[in-house]
Structure formats: C-alpha cells, structure tokens
What we know:
The protein is an alpha/beta fold. The protein has helices at residues 3-8, 35-47, 89-96, 115-119, 144-150, 178-194, 210-215, 242-246, and strands at residues 11-17, 23-28, 61-69, 74-81, 104-105, 134-137, 167-173, 199-205, 223-228, 233-236. Strand 3 and strand 4 form a beta hairpin.
Amino acid sequence: MNADSNAASVFKGIALFTPGGGLIYCIDRKKQERWHVHLCAALRDILNLPEPPHFLVPCYAATVDRWLIPQTQQLQMVAEASPLVLRYQTLLNAVFDTGDLVWQPSRLPEGLCDSVVLSAYRKQFPQLWEPHDLVVRYEAAEPYAHLHQELPVAPLEHSPLLSARGYVLRLFVSGHSIATERTLQALHRVLEQSLSHPYTLKVIDVSQHPEQAELDQVSATPTLVKVYPQPVRRIVGDLDNVDQLLRIFGPDR
Length: 253
C-alpha cells in the first residue's frame, strides 16, 4: 500500500447505539470534534425525541481511529467500544469496513454506566428502548447545529438528514442467524463502496414483524427493498450479486 492509499484510509469512525439496538454512525476523514453531540442531535430528529439523548455518551458509544505514523507512513488503528455495546462488533466491523478487527472495551469510570441510572432515562426517552433495528449513517457538509435551525423535524423516511438525494432501504430477514449477520455485513460493504449518497437501512425480522412483511409484499428472505426515492424496487435472495443489487438504485446512484 503506497502513501496515497494510506492517506485515503485515514479516518475516525464514531458510533452511537440505542438501548434497543439501533445504530447511528459517521465516518469522518477530516478528524473533526464533537461528533457524538451531532449523533445525539440526529437521533432526536429521527426518533422525534424531546431533546438530544446525551446520556448515551459514553455508555452506548464506540470509536475507531485510523491514522498514519509520520515517520514511517504506516497505518495504526485503535477501536474501542463501551462494554454495553461490545456485542455489536460484527455490525461495527461491517459499517466501518474493518474486517475481523477485535474491539477493545472502553475504560470508563466505575459506576458511570450503572443500569439503574441508565434505566431512569427510559420514561423520558421510551423510543430508544424500542427495537427499531435502525442502521443510519449520518453525514453533514455543515455543522449540525446550523442544519437543525433550518430543517424541521420529520419522520425517518422523509428526514432532512437524508435529503432528496438519499436512500431509504429495508432488509427483510428471518431470524438473527450467522447467515443473517453475513448478509448484513456483505450488504453494508457494497453500499459503502458503491453509493455516493447517504442511506438509511432498516433491518426487519419477518418472524417478529409479519405485518411489515405483508405491507411490503415480502414473501421470501432475504429481500432488500428500496422504498425511497420512488419507484420502489427490490431484490430477493441473491444479495451477493453486486451488479444485480446496484440496479435497484438506478443509474444515478
């Protein structure tokens, strides 16, 4: 790997989970600060919360930092996750394309993430404990505070964070098996490498939510449905066929 490709691989990845297992994350190649604050504000808008859920930081947070050693131009990487979200390592590696990286537990002050204290927020933020199965990549060309002043709160599938140039996807699976994890990992890799616009992916277990499968006319799994922008398109079964998969996005992906 040459110096140019090394430099292109430098980034900071920041992830924030909800107690219900939802994920919002960003990939920041400019190494900006205060991204956790931005992600909390984005969750507020996506889930229509009364205020940003800052209590999620650092107890439901994960970060990966990849940088170059100036003298040798060698890549170094450190990945840490709160003990409460270490079980999501497969998903974190999928969204950040970090292979089989083993994430280390974050060193947090004793008692900071006490379950009793965290559960006290459940009454104020009940949406965060619901199993939304959200996987949202957040990007902003401007500071988030500026965007929020101008953009109204909207439901997820019409969120201003996505904009008219974003995509809303639903992946229908049957149960949370090793095969499902592999499908999700492969799908994230293709989406991250091939799409030039932001996207939101919602994973739906048909065994838990048959009514959603019926509404989207899904009769087999896995099925990927692009629900926004119109027209609705879908691919059933073979999500490993990259060319076929990308056809649902049209020529302007």
